[in-house]
Design goal:
This protein is mainly alpha-helical and about 100 residues long. The protein has one domain. It is about 45% helix and about 5% strand. It has four helices and two strands. It has a two-stranded parallel sheet. Strand 1, helix 4 and strand 2 form a beta-alpha-beta unit. InterPro entries: Pectin_lyas_fold, Pectin_lyase_fold/virulence, Pectinesterase_cat. Pathway: Glycan metabolism; pectin degradation; 2-dehydro-3-deoxy-D-gluconate from pectin: step 1/5. This is Pectinesterase/pectinesterase inhibitor-like. Keywords: Aspartyl esterase, Cell wall biogenesis/degradation, Hydrolase. One of its GO terms (molecular function) is pectinesterase activity.
Length: about 100
């Protein structure tokens, strides 16, 4: 057991040394450096929203789910079950904050 643990420690140490060396190489080449990474601004993030998603954001919800009873449904499953059969229109379900423990 002692030999196995010592071998595992040596292999982990070697792996970490390799990662450290690769990181310094990438930094010197300015490839994948963390300095070039940033979060998108709100304007930049808006570019990734499709036109269909944009149109859905302006719709009023067809169903509201709230665990506290302030919505039409207390479970997400019940709201999904309320979607009409063969519906060909967007059906927007607003789920209020909470932890919903269901399938």
């Amino acid at each position: 057991m002692k030999n196995v643990l010592q071998t595992a420690r040596q292999m982990s140490s070697n792996g970490l040394a390799m990662v450290s060396n690769m990181s310094s190489i990438f930094t010197s080449l300015q490839v994948g450096s963390s300095a070039s990474r940033k979060l998108l601004s709100e304007e930049e993030a808006d570019l990734f929203i499709s036109m269909k998603q944009r149109s859905l954001m302006g719709l009023q919800p067809n169903a509201v789910v709230a665990q506290d009873g302030s919505g039409q449904f207390k479970t997400i499953s019940a709201a999904i079950a309320s979607v009409p059969q063969k519906n060909n229109q967007p059906f927007v379900i607003h789920v209020k904050a909470g932890v919903y423990k269901e399938y």
